[in-house]
Amino acid sequence: MNMIKLAAVTAVLGYSLGQAFATPIPLNHPQGLATDSKGILYVANPGTGAHPKGYRGNTGGQVLAYNTNFTQMPTKTLSGPHVNFPISLAVNSTDQLYVLNAGDWSVRAYSAGVEDTTKGWSFDIDSNPLQTYVVYSPVSISIDGMDNLWVSNGWYLLNSFVSVMSPSKALIYSQQFPGEQVASIATSPRGSAFLESSVGVGTRQYSPIGDLLAGRGAYKNKTWEATAITIDKTGKAYVCATSGAVLVRDVNTGSSAVFASLGYAPSGVAVDNVHNRVYFANEGLNQIDVYSTQGAYINTIH
Fold this sequence. Notes:
Layout: E1 5-7, E2 33-35, E3 41-45, E4 62-66, E5 86-91, E6 97-101, E7 106-110, E8 131-134, E9 140-143, E10 149-153, E11 160-165, E12 171-177, E13 182-187, E14 194-198, E15 202-206, H1 210-214, E16 219-221, E17 226-231, E18 236-241, E19 245-250, E20 256-261, E21 268-272, E22 277-282, E23 287-292, E24 297-301
Antiparallel strand pairs: 1-8, 2-3, 3-4, 5-6, 6-7, 7-8, 9-10, 10-11, 11-12, 13-14, 14-15, 15-16, 17-18, 18-19, 19-20, 21-22, 22-23, 23-24
């Protein structure tokens, strides 16, 4: 169960040369969010309201991209038969995009390379994924400061485990959470902290990450059961609680403060440290709300 198999695959993306959609694709139950080093926002857009986390068999959906002016970028949209109910995203240090597909239990990595029209694609994302990671009932992914891939598996087993893969695709370890459903995970860019939130248990921080293997959580808050978590480049964790409140926790110092009360439980969160923005996915209203890192409302993407 702890084995993660690797296989190269050929992807078919949604905007082939000369076939780009004339109008933007609408947000349809947006889930996981991620930003790259340029501030481009990526949105997992599964396209269905069923929301069966970890459910195998759902097909369709896209990964949408938005520039820093909140305009959708058709040339960076990802879709096709290898995008099947995407629910979680991550970007590594070289801007490679990782997509977790709940529909076929996979994580696919894509290069953020330059446009190559000779392949018949009008993309900034390469037409072929670099690798496919075959995972088990996955629900959340994260990339740490050493570009290790973290995957939360086993959603429907009520016995979740978190697997960690190195940049060389080697399995580093897997850690079980017996009797739990791990709903969201996040790793710090410095590789020194790991946050996870389980249903009915709340959010826990392990610092350093070695504490995870020893079962020692430096911090636990049952009140802050989270639907989404991210840790930005400065070490601030944004914990989106089921209550609709957002907690900001400094994983280095342990200080915490309420960032905002959104009135809904975000299905995804991402931080753009280049432009000092925080993005929250509102699945119920099919929109992305944009705030400054100081907590001021900026805009809404529909």
